Hints:
This protein is of the alpha+beta class and 345 residues long.
Amino acid sequence: MRLLICLLVLISTSLYGQKSKTYTLRTIAFYNCENLFDTLNDSLTFDDDRTPEGSYHWTRERYQQKVENLSKVISQIGAETFKTSPDIVGLCEVEDLDVLEDLVQHPNLRDKDYGIIHFDSPDARGIDVALLYKKAAFIPSSFKSHRLLLFDDMSERKYTLDQLVVGGTMDGEEIHFIVNHWPSRRGGVAKSSPLRVRAALLNKRIIDSIQELSLDAKIISMGDLNDDPIDDSLKKILKTKGKKRALDSVNLFNPMEAMFKKGIGSLAYRYKWNLFDQIFMTSNLVTEDRTTLTYWKAGIFAPAFIRNDEERFKGYPLRTYSGGTYTAGYSDLFPAYLFLFKVVK
């Protein structure tokens, strides 16, 4: 639903000598759902642990609690500012279309009228990426799943997640969203880094191909990148910039870089914060032209109810399982978000 807010405090007759303006405001979010599996055993994937008989004792009750938890978080991202849930939500670690339908049909989200775009990825764990969109805010016109081909030292295929690309129209403008979940750091940062470089190269090819067809296309890429904003995959391959004044027409703007340098993170591991969950964009979304969709600000959504309050892990994301013990939490990562705005009157 299109949300119109009159920003009388920011733009007032008394301060600027002009009439107040009305803005349309949009929230874009990304959330790693930390293993949103149903309870059924899929013989084609390694999901046995996420069944009632599996090592996690994944029962119907626990699944329903997980769906309730995730839907609650999604419903509140941006709500403090805009009084509604995000217009676009990228997701990862979701098993299939069925769990996505359960998510958007939960009472926390049902009245938001989310559409779903999803493809099955070849990842051995059976997890995928997906995009939710409010049908009243975004009209998709194209969608494609791009395969990331990886091989180990023995030239054996390493199956991982695709990158989902969705193009369409928002507030009368062409815009594209890319949803990512890059290879993990399993085996160590140095050993696994080339895999994420390959993922970044694919992301860059996708962005370049969109811009070849439409030079002015606005593109937002989001995901759990398993790298921080200052790592080679972002800085050397995608050539992201953390400061607006450093941008030119070919750079990508990553607002998460400044946050990371301030110590803000989306996950904690061994008493260290990382900011793996990121949203970055083409420079034409960072503009002084307020009559077009424009970046306002970004953040990590980490309210108290999704934080762990145990002394040892105080402030960390409250996970569904901790050390194999069920804790009825939300996810092992906090969601990322950004706000866009546009003058409409």
